[in-house]
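Hi team,

As requested, here is the filled-out complex form for the heme C run. I kept the field names the same as last time so the parser does not choke. Let me know if anything looks off before we queue the next batch.

— J.
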Amino acid sequence: MRRCLLLLAVAACGLDDSLGRMSEQLKAKPQGEVAAFADGRVNRAPPPGTVPRERELDLERQVPPIGLSLLEKGRRRYDVACAPCHGLTGEADTLVAAHLKTKPPSLLESKVHEKSDEHVFTVITQGSGAMPAQPDIPPDERWGVAGYLRALQLSQRSKLEDAPPEMQAKLKAQEAKPR
Ligand code: HEC
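And here is what came back:
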């Protein structure tokens, strides 16, 4: 009987051991030492020239020519990356916005309207307060989004006479139609 108990105990230990091996496998711990590198340090210095993702490069800050195709790209990107919080028209009237602790501002209000394109570019790259940074958006598209934001703002601040004549006629016809 005693031998039996002993066997059981050994079997149980064996079980524990197999779990134990998972946490005790060979691995390098942060700040630790490792023989694989000449200086023995686990923490490696980033290669020369590495910059944090959020840091803007001078190259990125060069404004590309903003034409219709870049604005179109900007709109597509805005609709995906910004509209969930700021709304398709910029008015921040979304379900997501309603549930955020810090409310996203309407991008049409003067406070935002008065800011430069460079400012919007930086807000996208680095974030701003509760707004997350989105450095993964390619730089030219960040400029495109800034440009599209201008278009959104203009669309809410313009008079009918500011539109090209053919567009004015179209808009008037639309207005005349009963909804
Ligand atoms: C997850 C929600 C969210 C997304 C997505 C988002 N924003 Fe924001 N945004 C916010 C919030 C919240 C604030 C207010 C931040 C604060 O005051 O702390 C803000 C503020 C701003 C401001 C004013 C900030 C300032 O310093 O002038 C601009 C401009 C802006 N967002 C543009 C954008 C653009 C462009 C995009 C898309 C690339 C975008 N946001 C995507 C939530 C979001």
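Two things worth flagging: Residues 20 and 101 are 43 Å apart (CA to CA). The chain has a mean pLDDT of 86.

Thanks,
J.
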